[in-house]
Design goal:
mainly alpha, 6 helices, elongated
Amino acid sequence: MTFPNAAKGLKKIYSAEILALVAALCSGIILIVTAFTVASAEDGSVAGALTGVAIIGLFGLGALVLLILALIFNLIGISSAKKDETGDQKGFATAFICIICSLVAGVVAGFFTTSIPALATGLTTASKLLDLFATYYVLYGIADFADKLGDSDLAAKSKGMAVKLCVLYCVSIIANAVTSFLSGKLGTIITLLLALVVLLFSVVYYIMYLRTLKTAKEVFASK
């Protein structure tokens, strides 16, 4: 039994996640520069504030381009991998649907940002949840292929990553809930610190996820 389409697809997904990881690092830089920019503005340093704004704009644009490329690679990869799925277990097919629905929700949310903020917030949250589900089903799609190949270690590793993903999302929700009650300069500092903590966990997860994808694409390509 071989899964050539899955092997090719996972290579694309692997590339997509590397791009997403770099985008996340750009976001971390933006957070740090934002803190210095706010401090410069409060101290009356116009030059420092303008420099910070320029850096934020540059890295923000870079992160956006990387995320768009990551999305394209991810869709191509998942579309390829789902061609090898048979039976009732179709993780990659489900992940593909989740990503498309996430895109639709995100675009629609943009139209209601100013007119109906509550609806926009709900759609944005739904979009993020769908992205979470997409990654979850990719991991279970890998586990399904691994089980069919008799690679129990890879199957267990993929399922374990799915659990870690849920834990990371819960940590993110808690952090957002805490920051919603904060205000003032101290609140801004704590918010930035919590955001950096969540970002750190996200980067660690990305690295672990990349290792899982790398192992899977090598296993599927060699069978």
